[in-house]
Structures are given as structure tokens and as C-alpha cells.
Design a protein that fits this description.
It contains seven helices and eight strands; from the N terminus they run αβαααββαββαββαβ. With about 240 residues, the protein is of the alpha+beta class. The model has no long low-confidence stretch (mean pLDDT about 95). It has one domain. α1 crosses α4 and α3 packs across α4.
Amino acid sequence: MVDWKYRAMGQIVNKKVREFYKKGYKSDNKDYGIILSFSSEEKANVYLKKWKKRNINRDLSKQAQDKLDEIIDNWSDESTFYENGALLFKVGENDHTLRAGNCGKMACVAGYLAHVDWGVGLKNILMVTLSSPADHEFCMIDTRGTEWNNKQRPTVRQFAKSVVAPDFLIIDPWLNTVCAGDEYLRDGTAKLKKWGDDGKRVRFYGSEGEGWYPASCDEYLSAFAAGKIEITGFDEIS
């Protein structure tokens, strides 16, 4: 069971990562769709302001991330997730226009901060990839030294029901979610539904090909729950 100290640490790390990216362009795979009906002019104006800022930053984020990928590639062909997190944070500290990243880059920074700010051992910091039909990454902390076998590759739904899930702390800055492993399906689904209610969309390869889908659509929620978990150590080559 993840105790309150780990949960508090996770919340602080998640907040720091999100504040870091908030001063830049954040991600390029989230935006706001067009909503034609509002209950008031005030709500319409608030939404239009959010729509304009997010959708402009979406395009600027893509340009910034292309530059970041070049920097990482030129720096090392075989860097670890920890080294990538350190580089992303330091580059962004020096140039706020390069504070851009989707789930993977945000997860790298989260793991880096968990280590340097809180002393979490690199062996206990994990990078989780959700493969087809999902396409997502997040940081996970092993609080009990649990043995993990990648041959199992459970789905998010299966993992949430497993006996080991309560011992893992998930830090997912892209989804703005911090929880124990057995809570991730519930909390992640709730956040995506809220995003959908707020008009947010995600870029996703769905039944109509790659494009923009409502965050709360059944297809995306089903893919999230069915994504297969693959884990890599934070001190391993990314």
C-alpha cells in the first residue's frame, strides 16, 4: 500500500513538472475543439480564451519538441530516461521556449525530480509505456521493491486488479494524475471524462485514422483501459 508520504511526494513532483511546462508550451497532442453552444456569453468568452491559448501553444510545442529531439539525439545515442529527464529540465531552465513535451518527456522530468529532489533510488523509478491500442507513457515509483516481469504485459484494467498494484505510485503529469496503481484506471478515466466535458481533444490513432478525438469518447477510454503495460528502469537506455 502506497503510504501518505509517497503520495505527498508524488503530488509535489507532479505540481512542479506542470508548473515547469506551464511556463512554456506544454504538449502538442491536446487541444480544445469547437463548441457552438454556451449557456452564457461569459462562458463562451472564457472558453474562447482557453481555446486560443492552448491551440496556439499546441503548434508551438511541436516546433519546440522537434528542437528538443535534435538536442537529445546530438547529445547521446544511448541516454537513459534519467539522463533525458535531467537534460530536458536543464535545457528548459535556460530557455522557457523549450519547455515543451508530451507524456513521455513529462514523465522523464517527473522521474528526474523524484530522484534529485526526494532521493528516490533510480532502481525504484520506472518508465511505463502503454502500447497498442493505447499510446501513452508515465512515471511509476516502486515503493516496495516489487519484482516485475515484462513478459506478463497486463492491460491497465488487469494491472489495477493485481495484488502488486497498490505498491506502485503513479505520477502522470500529462494526465495530471497521481495515485496508487490500483487507482489508476479509475482516476485516469475520471480525468479523461472531465477533459471531454471541458471540450478537450487528444490526438489519437483511432478507427478513423490519426486525428483529434474527444478525450472522453468511448474509443479513447477503451484504448486507455486496454493498453498493455511495459516497464523500463529509469536507469536503462531509453
